[in-house]
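Replying to the earlier thread about multi-chain prediction with a worked example.

Input:
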Amino acid sequence: MPDKFIEGLLTKHSEVQGIEWITDNIVSIERKTQPAFKAAILKLPLVGPEDVEPYLTTDLSVIVNFPKIGKWTGSAIAACEEAGKAWGQWSLLLRAINAEFPQATVNPEIAFSRRALRQHNRVVEVTFELDHLLLVRHQNGTTLRVALVYEYDLTGEDVRTARDNLGQFDVLLKTNPNGSILAEARDAATALSAKVFQIAELLGYLARGRF
Amino acid sequence: MNGNDILVRAGVDAMMIACAGLKAELTWYVFGSVLIDELSPGDIDILCVAPDASVLGGVQKACEEHLLKAPIHLRLLTSDQEHELNFICRTNARQYSI
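Result:
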């Protein structure tokens, strides 16, 4: 049975004319000023390739995972991108509704960090372990595990929660450009043998390549 | 469906009830897009302020099941952190109770 809460959120979107459920988790979204498109809405703690595979050869444009703390595996992300489907969290679907090409919608937080790292002249490759955990392969042969955390002010608890949610990482990248990194966050990272950076600091760290 | 309905249907009340068993003086707030009359928020931003850091892990654990059901962004701060960051004032957070 389609989720009435999700239905309510979608129909209140200012650009949505109406919706039609194709199945319990595939919805066709009719828009006021753009053509309709279809989306799959998952509700999973972890989205793997087997979860997206049924949708990859269909005409839907977007696959999202409803819970904010739900994660995506790198292989599920790669499968979506190869098939030309937008992927992400709930907010990505709302962004897609406003987009001319919903299938090209990206999470700006992840896309910015990914591109900045990929374009670094000492970085060979950037891949996803999870949606908020990047594997950054450096020229010197080291692969850094870079956790992405979007908070205005980063606390020690944020660092520890990231460790619980994402597993071990070498660097925590604070992706919100505003706000601050509290001293306790750096202490917590040190206790985990990790570093906390904003993007400019991380790019400098990669340029030095001493790790 | 208004802002309060969204909070209830997202399971925020249930999450708060789950934390009541921790016997800690938690104060809950709503901030972000739900407050600015946006009926289709990208995230449901919730702040929980705890008296000290010792209960934050317990709050996170008690909320986990509920966080898996909706796009809730749960911000956990101690009272000291909240004062230091002036978080409530800066985000115009509104206290929320059941």
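The two ends of chain B are 17 Å apart (CA to CA).

Feel free to reuse this layout for your own posts.
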